[in-house]
Design goal:
Elements: E1 11-17, E2 20-24, E3 34-37, H1 47-61, H2 64-69, H3 72-81, E4 87-91, E5 103-105, H4 118-123, E6 126-128, E7 139-142, H5 147-153, E8 168-172, E9 176-177, E10 188-189, H6 198-201, E11 222-227
Antiparallel strand pairs: 1-2, 1-7, 3-4, 5-6, 8-11, 9-10
Length: about 240
């Protein structure tokens, strides 16, 4: 998207990995695996969420044989102190799947009608933890640009004119829910559902105004904006105090 928000175009994104140069995100060469740790230090997941999740798992998701091997208290300690600190693979740069290991249960604990299972009520509302970022150094070109002949003519570097820098990289999410990991037939669809658009129902603002009074035309699913001419490496600098 241009810096004033007046125009946008689809792009291909590239990054470097070690000695491998200009890997296109989503290509066969893009093998970067991304992981999430549910109970990482800065995520601040409440202990009650982890405990409630562990109790539900023990009661409804473990087999009888698994339950016979440890008590509920032992299972809760294991989830809080061990399992929740393990990495969960969530996908790559062009797709992401949030699965049960990074989900917690946050349903109501009080004023539950008689006859309603307390654990089932707790599981009725869930919080899914995920995180997303582009590579620290990412290069955008108009979608479909073939870099190979350009690289043969001139050596490509971050200053090459083919890379788009005057604007923002907008990451658009197409959110779906899946059953049994079936990505071919989504159970629910946030944008392209047959009867409604969840972005519209949630009140997504398609024309936000910034601090300078400029209006930004957005599309359903626009989530993250990156400066096309900057890198997250610019956030960190080393200094010698003497």
């Amino acid at each position: 998207m241009s810096k004033d928000g007046s125009s946008r175009q689809e792009v291909d994104l590239y990054y470097h990995r070690g000695q491998e140069r200009l890997i296109r995100i989503g290509s066969a060469q893009d093998l970067e695996k991304r992981s999430v740790v549910l109970n990482s230090r800065l995520r601040n997941v409440p202990g009650t969420e982890l405990g409630d999740t562990a109790r539900y798992q023990y009661t409804y998701e473990l087999t009888a044989e698994e339950r016979s091997q440890r008590t509920l208290a032992e299972h809760m300690v294991r989830l809080v102190d061990q399992t929740s600190h393990q990495k969960t693979w969530v996908g790559r740069y062009d797709w992401m799947i949030l699965s049960a290991p990074i989900r917690t249960l946050i349903g109501p604990k009080t004023d539950i009608p008689s006859g309603v299972n307390v654990d089932r009520a707790n599981a009725a509302i869930q919080r899914w933890y995920g995180e997303y970022s582009l590579p620290a150094d990412v290069y955008a070109v108009p979608k479909g640009t073939d870099l190979e002949p350009l690289a043969r003519q001139n050596q490509l570097d971050e200053k090459s004119n083919v890379f788009l820098k005057n604007g923002y990289i907008v990451v658009n999410f197409n959110m779906e829910s899946l059953r049994k990991g079936n990505t071919e037939v989504p159970h629910l669809q946030y944008i392209h559902a047959p009867l409604m658009n969840q972005w519209q129902m949630d009140g997504f603002n398609k024309t936000p105004t910034d601090s300078h009074g400029r209006t930004w035309p957005l599309k359903d699913g626009d989530i993250v904006f990156y400066h096309a001419d900057q890198s997250s490496r610019n956030d960190f600098q080393s200094q010698v105090p003497h």
